[in-house]
Amino acid sequence: MVRNQAGIIFAFLLFLNPCHLVYARVVMGAAPGSFQYYKGVRSYNDHDYVQAMAWLKISARYKYYSEADLYVGLMYQQGLGVQRSYGRAYHWYLRAAKKGNVDAMVCIGLLYENGLGHHRDFQKAMSYYQEGAKRGSASACNALGEMYAKGEGVSPDYNQAFDWFKKSAEKGDPIGENLLGSFL
């Protein structure tokens, strides 16, 4: 009986406004934290960063939402709604990376590569990029290609750079395609 009532509520809310779809899914038993994640992303897109931070931190408590951790990290890195803090950004990126988020792995690599919040450490940057690339991130492939092309933390190796840009381009990444084209 409860499930049927929830289904009726779901259909009614969807009829009134498709934006209530996430709320209806929560009522019907969707993953914990999904409503908070939805509200956080919506607030972020509306440039209400203080509200976004509050909702995303609640959502980040759940293991399903590595993206919430990533958003919080981005907000700390860019100083959106909070005081800029590369150390806190690193903390949130690391949480997301431990949940398997490849974008967070790239962000951690960028912090190490540029010495933001830590001493500049090309080896650690390369390690995070390699893990991201192994998991399919085109951005990580681009970052590795650039490190080889510039000789950051490694001897310059244009063949390795070319190979990494090629892997990125094969994933359909326009930046990788552009970087690959610069080698031809």
Structural key phrases:
single chain; 184 residues; mainly alpha; Serine Threonine Protein Phosphatase 5, Tetratricopeptide repeat; 3 domains; 11 helices; 72% helix; elongated
Commentary on this structure:
The chain is mainly alpha-helical. It folds into 3 domains: 1-30; 35-99; 101-184, Tetratricopeptide repeat domain (Serine Threonine Protein Phosphatase 5, Tetratricopeptide repeat), CATH 1.25.40.10. It is 72% helix and 0% strand. α5 (66-78) packs antiparallel against α6, α6 (86-98) packs antiparallel against α7 and α10 packs antiparallel against α11 (174-183). The longest helix is centred in the N-terminal third of the chain and has 15 residues, at 2-16. The model is unreliable at 1-21 and 23-28 (pLDDT under 50).
CATH topology assignment of the largest domain: Serine Threonine Protein Phosphatase 5, Tetratricopeptide repeat
- First and last CA, distance: 65 Å
Whole-number average pLDDT? 85
Helix content: over 70%
Structural class: mainly alpha
| Secondary-structure element order, N to C | HHHHHHHHHHH
Supply Rg: 20 Å
* Biggest sheet layout: none
**Level-1 CATH class name of the largest domain:** Mainly Alpha
How many strands in all?
A: 0
Strand content: under 5%
Provide the number of structural domains: 3
CATH superfamily of the largest domain: Tetratricopeptide repeat domain
Number of helices: 11
**Overall geometry:** elongated
CATH architectural designation of the largest domain: Alpha Horseshoe
Low-confidence segments, given as residue ranges, are 1-21, 23-28
